């Protein structure tokens, strides 16, 4: 495993490690502790087309709940918001 600091204190450059016929990313303990990730934590993995985004599912689920709540709020109070916008 290789890990180097970049010019930014919050970024690292890492190499993937062979895991059987696949590749794996080793995440150090302090980062796992910071994000409260254990071996049993489900991770959401997606890409924006340029970067790989990995986050604990609990945060992803919370963000989805917030968006759903905001959409419901907008639906319920749409008329009030229209009047306020005038």
Structure in a nutshell:
The chain is an alpha+beta fold. It contains 3 helices and 6 strands; from the N terminus they run ββββαββαα. The relative contact order is 0.08.
Describe this structure in words.
A hairpin with a 2-residue loop joins strand 3 (17-19) and strand 4. The protein has two domains: 1-34, no CATH class; 40-86. The model has no long low-confidence stretch (mean pLDDT 86). The protein is elongated. The protein contains three helices and six strands, in the order ββββαββαα. The protein is α+β, with helices and mostly antiparallel strands and 86 residues long. It has a two-stranded antiparallel sheet. The protein has a two-stranded antiparallel ribbon with strand order 3-4.
> Total domains, how many?
2
**Fraction of residues in helix:** 25-40%
Strand fraction: 25-35%
- Mean pLDDT, to the nearest integer, reads 86
Total of helices: 3
Shape: elongated
What can be said about the biggest beta sheet?
2 strands, antiparallel
Low-confidence stretches: none
Strand order of the largest sheet: 1-2
Number of strands: 6
Supply the helix-strand structural class. Answer: alpha+beta
| Head-to-tail CA distance between termini | 59 Å
Q: Secondary-structure element order, as H and E?
A: EEEEHEEHH
Q: What Rg is obtained from the alpha carbons, in whole angstroms?
A: 20 Å
Summary tags:
single chain, elongated, 3 helices, 86 residues, two-stranded antiparallel sheet, 6 strands, alpha+beta, two-stranded antiparallel ribbon, 40% helix
SSE map:
Elements: E1 3-5, E2 12-14, E3 17-19, E4 22-24, H1 29-34, E5 43-47, E6 52-56, H2 57-76, H3 78-85
Antiparallel strand pairs: 1-2, 3-4, 5-6
């Amino acid at each position: 495993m290789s890990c180097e600091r970049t010019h930014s204190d919050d970024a690292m450059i890492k190499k993937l490690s062979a895991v059987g016929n696949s590749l794996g990313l080793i995440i150090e303990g302090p980062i796992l502790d910071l994000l409260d990730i254990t071996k049993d934590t489900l991770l959401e993995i997606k890409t924006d087309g340029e970067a790989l985004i990995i986050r604990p599912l609990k945060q992803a689920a919370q963000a989805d709940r917030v968006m759903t709540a905001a959409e419901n709020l907008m639906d319920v109070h749409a008329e009030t918001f229209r009047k306020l916008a005038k």
